[in-house]
Amino acid sequence: MNIIKPCSYHYLFSHIPREKAEKTDTIARDIATPLIETLNLHQENTATLKTPRPDVTPVSHHANDETETYLLQFRSYDVLTTILTLNRTDADENPFSYWKRTLRPNFPACEDPIGQTTILFAQAEPEMVIVREIMDTCFNVTVDEPLPFCRFVWGTLYSLQQPHSTPLHDSLRTDPYILLVPESEELDNGNRFLSYSFAMLESIRHKLVYEERQSRILNDQNETYKDKIKSLLQQIDDRLPQKNPKHSMIKQDLNQVDEYQAELYQNIAKIEALLLTSDINVDNFSRYLEVWPLTEDTLFDPLINRLQVIVRQINVDRQYFQFLLRELDKSEELLRLKIEWQRKEAEERTNKIREVTNALIFSFGVALGIWQFLPTLNLSIHLDITLRIAAIGIGGCLAYTLRRWLGKETLEGAFKEISGGQGTVDNVKKFGE
How distant, in Å, are the alpha carbons of 128, 141, 151, 333, 346 from that of 145? Predict the structure, then answer.
């Protein structure tokens, strides 16, 4: 089993804010500085990136020529890619021992990581017996099923992880690959592929899986907000028909509904932001592959389909919650209309009570005035008594008429208002606050 020039490529992908170069530089330094110090790396010219594109900005390039160790960082949109390349310098060291020794890149903890990838690269015949030996020795993994792979004219790339089984809740797990080239003159092609195109392919894959994970987190939050809003709306609707609803609690519930709806709007905006570059990323994935023609492919073709499914699912989630939010807005609007109708109805009742109050005060005032005025007329006792009885009768008839017209409860409310009690007027004021 002849394995020549073994090396390890390690990739760390970090989420960075768009259009904030100073933040990108800070994150990049936090990742690079411990590696520079540990590996004794020196600053190189960032222009050594061999295939620059408008969507890629070099950030830093460090190297140690003695140990053939290289550190490259560049950003593409909102992803910072850090590549650490480790080459075997002792030709007598067993390739498997070297790979096991360099299998862990020891990347420092970074802010908002998306994922990691490790690839073992060497000149060797791309035969499954060699691949299985590497897997068994370096990764302690035994797989009987055929591995996903893609075959270039110059070499073969194997994935040790099924593309569709990438876990959604472990962004820091390392995804391993093996790249073997049969001829020494093809090593340059392998290094160029791994230094740029493969890094971009993995960046897109990790980013879309990360966005799917973020979308699911937002969906879980949205489901919680939806349930809480529906519960509050039902609670308000149940309180309204009560004889003396606690309007301060209704107002508090409505404020809480507004807060949850604001959170829903924010989450939908975040999902829409995830979709801004998703379609472009899937297209770019295919474009980066076009540079390297494939003769066989059971790796990237299923992966592209998987990425397209991710984008479609995120879009479906966005549409669902947009529809749900419109329905919740309608429900809240109808409930507010109902509250406003009850407020106006209560206001009309209060105005009617006030009218009755004024009428009662006026009628009792007239009757009392007649009662007090009669003695000044020097009328006969018989006539005086008759007119006093008539005044009482007029007041009684007026009270009876008002009772028949307004009803017992309204009239009692009027008397309560006259007596200085706190009645419907205060309730109406509270309702409108």
Answer: 11, 12, 18, 58, 76
Could you give the count of Cα atoms lying within 13 Å of 249 in the half-sphere of its Cβ? 12
DSSP 172: T
Give 60-113 as a DSSP string.
Answer: EEEEETTTTEEEEEEEETTEEEEEEEEE---TTS-HHHHHHHTS---PPP-SSE
pLDDT in tens, the chain (433 residues): 689 999 999 999 998 877 677 788 889 999 999 999 999 999 876 555 555 566 788 888 999 999 999 999 998 888 999 999 999 999 889 999 999 999 888 898 887 788 899 999 999 988 888 898 898 888 887 777 788 999 999 999 999 864 444 443 344 567 899 999 999 899 999 999 999 899 999 999 998 888 888 888 988 998 898 888 888 888 877 777 766 666 677 778 888 888 888 888 888 888 888 887 787 888 888 888 888 989 999 999 988 888 888 888 888 888 888 888 777 776 667 566 566 655 655 566 666 666 666 666 656 555 555 555 556 655 555 555 565 556 556 655 665 565 555 555 555 555 555 455 444 434 434 434 4
Euclidean distance between CA atoms 244 and 228, whole angstroms = 25
Please enumerate in sequence order all residues whose Cβ is within 8 A of that of 428, keeping only pairs 6 or more positions apart, or say none: 343, 346, 347, 350
**Which residues touch 292 (CB under 8 Å, ≥6 apart)?**
152, 193, 197
- CATH 1.20.58 domain range(s) in the chain: 210-342
Distance CA 155, CA 294 (A): 10
C-alpha distances out from residue 374 to 309, 367, 380, 383, Å: 97, 11, 10, 10
Q: Provide DSSP, 365-386.
A: HHHHHHHHHGGGGT--HHHHHH
Q: Please give the CATH number for the structural domain made up of 210-342.
A: 1.20.58
Centre a 10 Å sphere on the Cβ of residue 402 and count the other Cβ atoms it contains.
18
What tokens were used for 176? 């391993």
Instruction: Report which residue type is found at 153.
Output: V
Q: Global pTM?
A: 0.72
